[in-house]
Amino acid sequence: MDSRPQLSVIVPVYNEVATVRTLLERVMAVRIPKEIIVVDDGSTDGTPTALEEVQAAIPDTPDNRLTLLFRPRNRGKGAAVRAAIGRVTGDIVIIQDADLEYDPAEYGVMVAPIKTGRSDVVYGVRGFLSHTSYSYWFVVGNRLVTTATNMLFNCYIQDMESGFKAMRADLMRQLGLRGNRFDIEPEITGRVLRLGYRIHEVPITYYARGRGEGKKPEGSLVEGESVKIKDGMIFDVTRTDQS
Ligand SMILES: Nc1nc2c(ncn2[C@@H]2O[C@H](COP(=O)(O)OP(=O)(O)OP(=O)(O)O)[C@@H](O)[C@H]2O)c(=O)[nH]1
Ligand SMILES: [Mg+2]
């Protein structure tokens, strides 16, 4: 019997003790056979203990196999995702943030185009409706980098920075990702498009946390951040005022 899970859920997590338990419970409630690979790299707020408690309290089942990877030094979301890719055994990979901004209940919608062979890559498109968009410049920045992607690759996607990305596992491995931090998002998009794959987008529900709840420094794409074009293909958004 093939014991490979249909789905591998990669959860990068850094200092998310307030949400990570609930998030994992929601992931496990999804009725798709899956493995869940959580990567923590140096959280200092009790997240590692919370993860171990979840693992001790909820035994693995064929529908839910939990793997915890602890890395000693903080290296960023991209490095965490890359570490997890090496452990993936499922057919389809989905990246799931550990805060509660993206809803695991929507995995069915995310993986359907891949399961039915209609697409290799699916992105969840955020609506950026007023009740979840805490910052005007955050939304404008997202639109800006997505427009730059469309111009570079002559495509028409709506939300290339979405953290809700699913794709065939073999394609994910083929991307040869190198990004360590949030540059992983444009890097995935750039490499997928450069390989000639079309991104299939589906609308998803997005619950943006407020700037005060997140851990990123205050700032915007307009003040203190810049868009860089790398190799004419992959671009990156970097803060220019951080040390
Ligand atoms: N392992 C690891 N995970 C990280 C790191 N930085 C962020 N993450 C995780 O990556 C996911 C996305 O990070 P967020 O900080 O939520 O990024 P964001 O959604 O753009 O920002 P917010 O608006 O603050 O939520 C979350 O699950 C984080 O815990 C890191 O350095 N290491
Ligand atoms: Mg977030």
Describe this structure in words.
This protein has one domain (7-132, 159-210): Alpha-Beta Complex (Spore Coat Polysaccharide Biosynthesis Protein SpsA, Chain A), CATH 3.90.550. It is built from 7 helices and 9 strands, in the order βαβαβαβαβαβααβββ. The chain has helices spanning 20-29, 47-57, 77-85, 107-115, 136-153, 169-174, 184-194, and strands spanning 7-13, 34-40, 64-70, 92-95, 121-126, 165-168, 199-204, 225-230, 234-239. The strands form 2 sheets. Strands 3-2-1-4-6-5-7 form a 7-stranded mixed β-sheet, sandwiched between helices. Strands 8-9 form a two-stranded antiparallel ribbon. Strand 8 (225-230) and strand 9 (234-239) form a beta hairpin.
CATH architecture title = Alpha-Beta Complex
Q: Averaged pLDDT, please?
A: 89
Coarse shape: globular
Main β-sheet description: 7 strands, mixed
Order of helices and strands: EHEHEHEHEHEHHEEE
Low-confidence stretches: 218-243
Total of DSSP H or I helical runs spanning 4+ residues: 7
Strand order of the largest sheet: 3-2-1-4-6-5-7
Helix fraction bin: 25-40%
Terminal-residue CA separation: 53 Å
What is the domain tally?
1
Q: Give the name of the CATH superfamily.
A: Spore Coat Polysaccharide Biosynthesis Protein SpsA, Chain A
Radius of gyration: 17 Å
| Residues in β-strands, percent | 15-25%
How would you concisely characterize the structure shown here?
By secondary structure, this protein is α/β, with parallel strands linked by helices. 30% of the residues lie in helices and 22% in strands. The protein is built from 7 helices and 9 strands, in the order βαβαβαβαβαβααβββ.
